[in-house]
Amino acid sequence: MPKKKKKKKKTPAKKKAPAKKKAPAKKKAPAKKKAPAKKKAPAKKQAASGKTPPAKQTTPSRAPTSSTTAPPTPSSAPIAGQPAPPFTLPGDDGAAHSLAAHLGSPVVVYFYPKDDTPGCTIEACDFRDNLARVAGKGAALFGISKDSTDSHARFRQKYSLNFALLSDPELTTHKAYGAWGEKLMYGKPTVGVIRSTFLVGRDGRIARAWPKVKVDGHVDEVLRALEALGE
Question: Could you report the per-residue pLDDT of 86-140, keeping only the tens digit for each?
């Protein structure tokens, strides 16, 4: 008899693992509320007439000022026809010299800033070289500065000056002749000696005044004035 085939026992199916539970979805954070937009300021209402308001007037700009310094106020120098201020001052020769002592004769009086400086030396030497012409008109000549008589003596000896130099340290005579005051130096106002010359006539009055002297050619001007004065 044929053998009966043994039935194979079926392997029991593996149980499936239970599916993992999904994690609950995260809740979304609530959206931030936007800040309300700022309201625009209402436009200014025009006047009821409908005309636009007039524009503000601007202050007119000033015209640019010049960079040049204004000249100082002229000094109170005596002018032609006025009495010459009297003076008596010590000279480098040790004597006292007075304007009154020369009444009846012309006198040339010149004021200068300082002994042995370039401009003052040129002026003094120019008078020195022309003293014969000055004396030929019967005139006396005096140079005056605020330097001491010792300084004058050194200056006179160094350049062989042939006329007296008078000392006015207190500036009394300078001020009487307007030879001390405000002036321009290198474009800036300053106070000091104003180079000046005066021709005193025989009558003791100012015959000619040069209140602001330029050294070049100045002595020639003085000589011409002396000649015009006559005998």
Answer: 999 999 999 999 999 999 999 999 999 999 999 999 999 999 999 999 999 999 9
* Least confident stretch, 1-15, 52-66, 99-113: 52-66
Q: What is the CATH number of the domain that holds 117?
A: 3.40.30.10
Residue 111 forms part of a structural domain: yes
Inter-CA distances, 214 with 34, 78, 121, 196, 202, Å: 87, 19, 13, 9, 26
Q: 229: which residues sit within 8 A by CB, 6+ positions away?
A: 106, 137, 199, 201, 207
Catalytically active residues, by annotation: 120
Residue 22 lies in a domain: no
Instruction: Decide if 209 contacts 79 (C-beta within 8 A).
Output: yes
Query: In this prediction, what percent of the chain has a pLDDT beyond 70?
Result: 67
pLDDT tier for residue 183 given thresholds of 50, 70 and 90: confident
Spatial separation of the C-alpha atoms in residues 8 and 27, rounded to whole Å: 55
17-42: average pLDDT: 54
123 is in which domain, residue-wise? Answer: 104-178+193-229
d(CA 175, CA 26): 105
Pair 213, 202: CB distance under 8 Å: no
Both tokens assigned to 199: 């021709």
